[in-house]
């Protein structure tokens, strides 16, 4: 058999073969790269078209139907911001399509330039997407409403074959996660030696980071949504939640909290968070007070507008003047005032009520932050001692860190936004008040000059005019006095209500402890919203200890509620005067000063002036009952039996558990329960020998 001879290629032939193979590989990569770039741009165009159809045709069609119970803003979220970012991004990609030489650089820069914008809008949209699905699921239960939505989809977006809105609304969630895949495809088909390879890799890493941040933000929002809801549970449901585990957890929190307050265990302090929380509660108080004032204004305005004086006989004989007055009043009450009311409700009242409701979620989250912080400190202590924790404890640590991170990152923006809205509401109120005044003056200017000359006494000399005015006022005063006497005669004598046994005991204790001049009564229910605030019921008695708080706020008073001490709003308590009764002191009733003076003539009560006594002032000396070692420069050390001078019976936050004292010329804070007060048998001002 004849053997076939094969020539072995030399080195030059091998180099030619390798070069040809490499050229084929490079050409194939370039084709794949071009295809990947075109896929990125074309799919972005399709994506943007779908979003514009969703927000344009579908949104507008549903808005025109004005369907009840359809929350379009809740469904769509911030999709308009997503569209704006996508438009900017597509513009940059189209520019890159025409610039072949620097195409990879322009694509990389498009991602890098819009990285922060993409993260901001997509993380908000993706976090709200679960709420979108819940809303749509709820709308599917309403057959009529869901049929209207499907009819809109068939009319506006029939080519898409969409059966629900989530067909469009899910696209942003899918698109942001697809950007790293598309970039990776372009990068794989780019030579490492390409001068723009590093830029592409940086863009890929940026998009991966954006997706990681979005997922982390979604996790934080899920934790926040779990705890910021206000649950209106019945007593049976609350009792049903009690278990050994919950009781043990709450007992551990309470124990650690007491140790913090007693100074036994140092408390973890986060100055940044504490400052944000303080600003939050200041804004909450400002919004609450403004809402109360605006609500009172609105009630007074409704009462004012309920009267129509132009429909009554005004006692003016000149028919022309009456006609002009009635015309002006009719214009005010039927045209100008209704316009003002509409602007007041839409620009001031409703926005303020909505702004007040925004505080509910952060309030719950801040409260839960305090609880989780106690759990976190206990777990950290356990980890430092044993180095081992359970899976549940690890989850608790993650939960605390998530809540803390969310509050620290979101509270500054929340406080800033609320401040801006609050300023805008106040400015809006000022503007509508000015517009009301200008409208009234404009209406009056047309006929006021003629009306004045038609009124009585307008031609009298000035001296005579004032004499007439004085006579009219005197006559009106007589009529008012006569009406008052008739009214007082017809009014029944008020009945003094007896106090309950508990109320008598509490009142007697407060009077003996603080004296009758410091007794006040709560005029409406008080719900404490801050640390050291008291929660009191209407009608309870308190003794005022100080008419300001530690910051000098005169609207927040320190009171003794018969055991508990704390702060209450000054406008919600009223001073009462102790009247003599046939019963002993424990059965006396306190009557407010204002009512006493106004109604003194309505009934007769024999008042017996309280005897003027100067009771001896007991002399107290304060000593250190236990040894205390200062742990910082703000504290001072004590030795048992050491004399102490109390400078302030509370700390800078008003906490009565710590006292500012002076010992041996040094000032500092010590726990109040470490001090002992000794009563000496002589009164102040008397000698020790007596």
TrEMBL record:
The keyword Membrane does not apply. The keyword Acetylation does not apply. Keywords: Guanine-nucleotide releasing factor, SH3 domain. Residues 258-489 form the BAR domain. Residues 515-578, 615-680 form the SH3 domain. GO terms for molecular function: guanyl-nucleotide exchange factor activity. Residues 32-217 form the DH domain. GO terms for cellular component: cytoplasm. It holds the Pfam family SH3_2. This is Rho guanine nucleotide exchange factor 37.
């Amino acid at each position: 058999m004849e053997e076939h001879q094969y020539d072995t290629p030399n080195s030059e032939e091998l180099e030619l073969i390798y070069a040809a193979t490499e050229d084929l590989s490079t050409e194939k990569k370039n084709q794949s790269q071009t295809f990947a770039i075109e896929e990125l741009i074309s799919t972005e165009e399709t994506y943007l078209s779908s979003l514009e159809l969703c927000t344009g045709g579908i949104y507008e069609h549903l808005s025109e139907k004005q369907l009840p119970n359809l929350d379009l803003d809740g469904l769509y979220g911030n999709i308009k911001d997503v569209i704006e970012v996508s438009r900017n991004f597509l513009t940059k990609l189209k520019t890159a399509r025409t610039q072949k030489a620097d195409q990879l650089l322009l694509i990389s820069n498009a991602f890098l330039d819009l990285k922060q914008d993409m993260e901001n809008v997509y993380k908000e949209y993706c976090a709200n997407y679960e709420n979108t699905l819940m809303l749509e699921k709820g709308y599917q239960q309403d057959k009529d409403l869901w049929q209207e939505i499907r009819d809109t989809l068939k009319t506006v977006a029939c080519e898409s074959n969409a059966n629900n809105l989530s067909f469009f609304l899910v696209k942003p969630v899918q698109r942001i996660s697809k950007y790293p895949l598309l970039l990776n495809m372009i990068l794989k088909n780019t030579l490492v030696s390409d001068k723009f390879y590093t830029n592409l890799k940086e863009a890929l890493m940026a998009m991966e980071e954006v997706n990681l941040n979005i997922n982390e933000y979604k996790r934080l929002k899920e934790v926040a949504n779990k705890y910021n809801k206000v649950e209106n549970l019945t007593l049976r449901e609350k009792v049903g939640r009690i278990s050994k585990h919950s009781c043990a957890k709450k007992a551990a929190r309470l124990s650690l909290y007491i140790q913090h307050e007693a100074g036994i265990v140092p408390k973890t302090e986060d100055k940044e968070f504490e400052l944000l929380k303080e600003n939050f509660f200041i804004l909450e108080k400002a919004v609450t007070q403004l809402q109360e004032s605006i609500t009172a204004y609105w009630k007074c305005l409704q009462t004012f507008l309920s009267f129509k004086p132009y429909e009554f006989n005004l006692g003016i004989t000149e028919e022309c003047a009456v006609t002009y007055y009635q015309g002006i009043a009719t214009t005010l009450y039927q045209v100008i005032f209704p316009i003002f009311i509409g602007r007041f409700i839409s620009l001031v009242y409703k926005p303020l009520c909505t702004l007040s409701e925004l505080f509910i979620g952060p309030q719950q989250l801040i409260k839960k932050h305090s609880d989780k912080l106690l759990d976190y400190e206990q777990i950290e202590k356990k980890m430092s001692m044993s180095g081992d924790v359970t899976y549940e404890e690890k989850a608790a640590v993650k939960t605390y860190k998530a809540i803390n991170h969310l509050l620290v990152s979101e509270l500054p923006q929340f406080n800033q936004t609320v401040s801006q809205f609050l300023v805008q509401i106040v400015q809006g109120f000022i503007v509508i008040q000015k517009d009301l005044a200008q409208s009234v003056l404009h209406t009056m200017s047309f006929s006021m000059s003629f009306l004045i000359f038609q009124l009585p006494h307008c031609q009298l000399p000035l001296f005579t005019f004032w004499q007439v005015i004085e006579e009219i006022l005197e006559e009106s005063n007589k009529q008012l006095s006569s009406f008052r006497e008739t009214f007082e005669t017809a009014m029944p004598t008020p009945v003094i209500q007896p106090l309950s046994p508990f109320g008598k005991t509490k009142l007697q204790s407060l009077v003996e402890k603080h004296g009758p001049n410091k007794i006040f009564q709560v005029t409406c229910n008080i719900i404490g919203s801050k640390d050291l605030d008291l929660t009191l019921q209407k009608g309870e008695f308190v003794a005022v200890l100080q008419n300001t708080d530690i910051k000098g706020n005169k609207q927040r008073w320190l009171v003794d509620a018969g055991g508990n001490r704390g702060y209450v709003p000054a406008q919600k308590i009223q001073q009462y005067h102790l009247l003599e009764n046939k019963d002993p002191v424990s059965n006396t009733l306190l009557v407010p000063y204002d009512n006493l003076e106004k109604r003194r003539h309505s009934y007769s009560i024999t008042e017996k002036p309280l005897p003027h006594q100067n009771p001896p002032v007991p002399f107290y000396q304060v000593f250190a009952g236990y040894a205390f070692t200062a742990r910082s420069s703000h504290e001072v050390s004590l030795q048992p039996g050491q004399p102490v001078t109390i400078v302030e019976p509370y700390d800078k936050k008003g906490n009565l558990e710590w006292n500012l004292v002076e010992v041996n010329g040094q000032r500092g804070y010590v726990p109040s329960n470490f001090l002992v007060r000794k009563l000496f048998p002589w009164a102040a001002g008397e000698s020790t020998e007596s």
